[in-house]
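Deliverable D5.2: sample structural annotation.
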Amino acid sequence: MQIRNLLFLSIVTGIITGIFIVIYGLLTEFLKHVLFFGDPIESISKLPAWYVVLVPVVSILIVNFLISISESVKEYGVGEIAEAVIQNRLVFGFKDLILKIIASSLSLASGFAVGNEGPSAAIGAMIASKLHPIFKLPKDLLRVSISIGASSGIAAIFVSPVTGIMFAIENIAYNFVRDYVGYLIIAGALGFSVAFYFLEPLIFKYSIGKFLEYRYIFASLLFIPIITFYIYFYLWLKNKVLKFLNFKISEKFQKYKNYIFGLTGGVIIGMILLISPFAAFSGHEVVEYLINGKFHLSFSLIFLIIVLRIIATAVSIYANAVGGIFIALMSIGALVGYGFGELLSMYGINVEPFYFAAIGAAVFMGVNMKLPLTAVVVALEITYDYNVIVPTAIMVTIVSYLISLKFELHKLHFKLGVSG
């Protein structure tokens, strides 16, 4: 009886989540074109500067107002959602679901550098948590139900079924893999199936499939110190930006801090939009363009966009923009990888920059979010190319180790300093 009900929950959750994710994805694109009078990449340069700044300012103030109406509109990690629901600290209604979709669509459409995977996982989790008692499942399976919902949400928004399954497993379902992974698979597959005809997946157009060229593996070893440096740089700059903003505002405007955060963040995002639209928004376009070699960027422009995207990501979090950082991190990694590929080409090493854009995107996200398996699966589902998948698998493991080693050394230095 319990197994049958869990199976039905998986099927219904996958279908309903797929429908809501399609609405969410299409609404985001619609609002983006309405707010900027067309594709913002092309239209922003033709719009008045005051209007470009006004769009994110007004949008984020509306988002913070929606958060004041319903706390569940805020961005939460899937693990946080599971704990909060189980402990009755977070209750979702249909109104909360609609408000979250509106708030996240508005955040993404107005230029904030957040991704749509966080809200998508949360939307699936919300739906699954409401269906859980309808199917008369015990409370100790609520975390499993939320994992099923998160899986279908990610699979639908990325139009990638295996990515959704792996994301849910690595985030909150690892203890249930043996007994419950089948339900994640069916919900993820159904969510993907509903979204497939409505939403656009990331596609690597130059895939050569199962033909391995060893020069990409050797070149990826040279890439390890470069991307490790940029991960440190991302963490350092993001923390500096957040500390600066919090120091200047938090203590002085405690009562209205969310609106002050939103106003400050909106102005900064507006200014970034004026400098380069590629430095704002979710980063989906940046990844797509770079992994398919749709344009050429100079080294100075690549570095500028990397810095601006890091600032935009930090500011978006600070301003309470509703969204995740999955695709935002991928966009930074794609820029780093593309620049590295261009550098090798300049020195006569025969590699294609768009290959390293794909590798950099997967590795940068996987290391920063501590999702190594998801990084490999993303590389697999986007490219289906061994020259991306194999270097990604090697690099995400080694770079993750190097990052953890750095923090272990930092802890050791701190302990020695205290004891000395």
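Annotation notes: Residues 409-420 have pLDDT under 50 and may be disordered. The CA atoms of residues 111 and 281 lie 4 Å apart.
The annotation will be released with the project's public dataset once the embargo ends.
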